[in-house]
Amino acid sequence: MRLSEQSLYVLAEQIRTQKISPVELVEDVFQQIEEKEQQHNAYIDIQKDRAIHLAKEAEREISEGKYRGPLHGIPIGIKDNIYFANETTTMGSKIHQHFIPTEDATVVKKLREAGAVFLGKLNMHEYAWGATNDNPFYGACRNPHDTTKISGGSSGGSGVAIATNMAIGALGTDTGGSIRIPAAFCGIFGLKPTHGLVSKANCFPLAWSLDHVGPMTKTAIDSALMLDVLAGYDAKDPTSIQCVQPASYAGEVDISLENLGIGVNESYFFNQVDDEVAKRVREVIQLFEDSGATIVEVDVPALAHVEYAEMITITSEASAIHHDDLIEREEDFGEDVRFLLKLGELPSAVDYLRAQQIRQQLDIQFQHMFQQVDVLFTPTIPFVAPSIGSHTATINGEEVSLLDHIIRFTGPFNLTGLPVASVPVGFAHDLPVGMQIIGPAFEDKRVLDVARLYELLV
């Protein structure tokens, strides 16, 4: 097995014990980039010379006994709406194609301090406002399992880079599902942390109250190791929350299958789902039940109104951010983003406030649900990846609107800010399927632990 095919967890231990060099690892990752990037288009900008320099610095420090931790010497890709000091950050757009921030995002600063090796900036849907990563300015990011299919977005480059071994870890952002959708379509692990746990300072916003930053990796423990570095209060982010955190998200699993209560909601999360997708998720639920977990049918009535609340909130907030550019530079937006930004100018203040009332009801009902169960299992997306350029997806042979359905199962957890992982659970129609594991607020370790239990079961 090539070095770049191994998990972050395994590679970190080999680097720590000096069995491999960060330089060897980075060179192998760049060999993968040279072989696969043209076909998959995961990157907007690649910085090989800088990466080799950082890898040599990491090698020197480790040889001198200055090991910084599990991310020291690990090659990481950064989504291109996360600021990197003194280097172009495009947001996947034409309008910001020459934008150069003067300081790092807090998450980049934390990765620097942890000794990560930065590979470059990853492709994304323009301004993160879309779920296909079919970018009119930087090209479509193509699915690692079938290059005619979408990668999912908006963090499509992050998903593809991990799945094709063109990065060992990656950062994504998630406002309606933008970490979890590409994780599901690409067959990797993606974590949307609890809102407020990971700083968004110096990350270009899509919708202030819904945005999250999180890791995308091969396995749950890999994301846990990244979260150990990324999590923590940041005064620069007004939504950052001071909270009690575990000693380590990657520490020992402290939940047992015999004491695990898993919630399943049939009326919303298994409604209008492709049969083969639902089958993969139900197989996982059955596996947990056979292994000692308790399955509980749960009801969350406010889910009946969640799609309205999510779309009003995300479109209104996004259009407020881009309002001036929409007036002055309308033609410089891609067609799909321009349409969504115009759409976001239509809701009234009454619409927005009604959406926030639904959001509050949803919060309360999920809090009540988590008094009954430890986690909730749902499909990540109700279908597999559609073709690039398509405006529809297929559910049981029927063509449905891609825009209407792609964030149907992910969006509720941006409204509530709850921690969610998308875990790969096999294939349907020869394409990857993802399953969401959702936990209570700030119980990110519980979500990661349950994901790790699943990886042990399979």
UniProtKB/TrEMBL annotation:
Pfam families (UniProt xref): Amidase
Domain Amidase intervals: 24-448
GO molecular function, one term: catalytic activity
Spans traversing the lipid bilayer: none
Gene3D superfamilies noted in UniProt: Amidase signature (AS) domain
PANTHER family for this protein: AMIDASE AMID-RELATED (PTHR11895:SF176), TRANSAMIDASE (PTHR11895)
Protein name per Swiss-Prot or TrEMBL: Amidase
Biological classification of the source: Bacteria, Bacillati, Bacillota, Bacilli, Bacillales
